[in-house]
Amino acid sequence: MNETPLAWRVDSPSLSLFAFHLRNDTNGIKDNANRLWEQCLTLGEESDIPLLKSLKTALRSYTYNPKDSQYHYTPTNEDREATEAEKPYLDDWLELVRLDPKLDQARQLSFHALAGKNAPRIMGELYPLRIHDTYALDLTLRYRQTLDFTHLSLLNSSEQIRGSLGQTMLLFTKPVNVPESDYQEFTNQCVAALLPKTASNLNPSFQGQLFGSPIFEYEGKGENPREGHHLLVWLNSHPETLQRIGQSEAYHALLNLLCCRHKILFA
Length: 267
Hints:
By secondary structure, the protein is an alpha+beta fold. The chain has 6 helices and 14 strands.
């Protein structure tokens, strides 16, 4: 007697949106240089996330004016608030979260969001930084349990957050009840659930291994290159993967690589 196959599921899925936006060029600071941060504020209002709604208070890019009791975009303040350890690298890299320099804390912001009544809790992290002449944002949303594919779309903020140089989404999850021979079809179903309106326009373009686990690349072109989708689906199927993914060197190398990719394609 044949056993009924167990349903495929995703375990602890996280979706990182890496968005890149040109801050300045040879003519100086761009008129819309702070667009990424303003989009985060709007997302905070729409999703009722207090940390995002008050993001200006946490970024070095904004200063407080007591005359009108408002925070205003002040890009020159970024360098002024840099620590002595950061100053030699200002032309290359600067983390933008404002923290007490006496405290040994990561310069990222953590929050949680309610996806709806009886819906699983969504955890989030926001990591804003400046890479050369470009603002970069890592907005990661995650679940901490095993779920059906249908919940993945609630992690997608790519419609609200769009940089002038484009963005890449990275879905990282552990496949449940999925034989290795079906990994490609599993990732196809992840993409379909994550982007139900545009998945049919996304084509698998590459498959490889990263830190022991398979990774799949999908690309979709829009009328405007900045409106296309670039999606990576990385399966957590090897013990080494989680150990390596937490290393800051690997993370920063990935950010730099993606930033260079988008500047080459869209600048």
